[in-house]
Here is the input.
Amino acid sequence: MKKLYFPLFIDISEKKILIIGGGKIATRRIETLLEFADDITVISPKITDRLMELRQKEKGHIHWIADVYREEMLEGADLVLAATDDTVCNERIVDDCKKRSILVNTSHKKELCDFYFPGIIRRENLVVGFNSGGLSHHEVKEAREKMEQVL
Here is the structure.
């Protein structure tokens, strides 16, 4: 039987969110999370120019640790995203999170994820999420775009 993911809307405004990686994928995830979260920590030796801009704009909400990942950095994290360009590091992050019962998403292998990032539409108090269980990003994007027209 194919594993299905339950659509769960939760308050992450006071959760500690840790993103390991500072590239394009991490930047896109952070742009989405900023509408919902107040405490995002990025661990990466370097970050994109866009992420640097977001840090300046969102003072106090995005913290950057210019370093490589170490397991002790997970201390106190509620939600972790492994978004490095190193699959071995991403898998180590997933294993370390699972040992600590921290929900984790990795950008390189959907089967290792505890949760997926949905396609999101936000209109004032309405939040709509689209997800295909990691099977078809194209389908999710198409459905989100059609729904945006409807709304």
User: Anything to note?
Assistant: Helices lie at 24-33, 49-57, 87-99, 137-150. The chain has two domains: 17-117, 118-151. Residues 137-150 form the longest helix (14 residues).
